[in-house]
Amino acid sequence: MDYIVEIENVSHGYSKDREQLVLDDLSLKVRRGEFLVVLGHNGSGKSTLAKLINGILVPREGSIKVNGMDTADENTIWEIRQTAGMVFQNPDNQLVATVVEEDVAFGPENQGIESSEIRRRVDESLKSVDMYEYRKNAPHMLSGGQKQRVAIAGVIAMKPDCIILDEPTAMLDPSGRREVIDIVKKLNREEGKTIIHITHYMDEAIDADRIVVMESGKIAMEGTPIEVFGDVEKIRGLGLDVPQVTELAFELVKAGLDIDPKVLRI
Ligand code: ADP
Known about the structure:
Blueprint: E1 3-13, E2 21-31, E3 35-39, H1 46-53, E4 61-66, E5 69-70, H2 77-83, E6 84-87, H3 100-110, H4 115-128, H5 144-156, E7 162-166, H6 174-189, E8 194-198, E9 210-215, E10 218-223, H7 225-230, H8 232-237, H9 244-254
Parallel strand pairs: 3-8, 3-9, 6-7, 7-8
Antiparallel strand pairs: 1-2, 1-4, 4-5, 9-10
Bound molecules: adenosine-5'-diphosphate (ADP).
């Protein structure tokens, strides 16, 4: 099995007090090309996990490897950040330039990449997120969903194998959410990117290969969407809700209708 991310017995906290661990002896492996969704209510440790994978934080205990490189190794940290690119919640905080294409070029420019290659990557990345026609526009004039797609293009331009998205749709309206989710799925299915998608919108997890549900810094549930959402009582016990379409599918199956729950998606 080829893993791109290997998290082994990681504990982490922001204070020295062991009682206040935010991640508690957590282990998780992410397969190359996998679409993993991380669910959990506020404060369960999802963002901390994302920052640890990307090397923004170094685990207090345990180890994290990205493409076999240890995130605690200062010599490989830049390669790790480029391998596992991060997209954050607020697109306004991620866009730095006054023109879309300059914004997308920012990362590769900092990597010291040659200008013709930067040009190629910028065009290709903007096409990947269906924003090529906006390349000369000012980012602040775009909708929330469009801005987030430009932020994703900025990450893609760095040629990451894995993209970690930390609640990328939390600040978007329903159509913006849909735009971003469609692009994320496409990057996984058509371009083979490993996706680690953190969200508290349950319906965004329906198409995942695997769901991990976090609670108090530990993995409380793990499995395919059907396995995880099939345990409605446990999901509710964790303060979360099963997506309505999934609940409906299960009810229909229980009522004797011969359908595969997988067909009822967002
Ligand atoms: P989630 O993404 O699931 O909401 P976080 O990883 O952001 O969870 O937070 C987990 C816990 O860590 C919360 O109790 C939060 O208050 C705390 N925390 C997060 N970031 C910091 C920080 N920079 N300093 C101190 N505490 C933090």
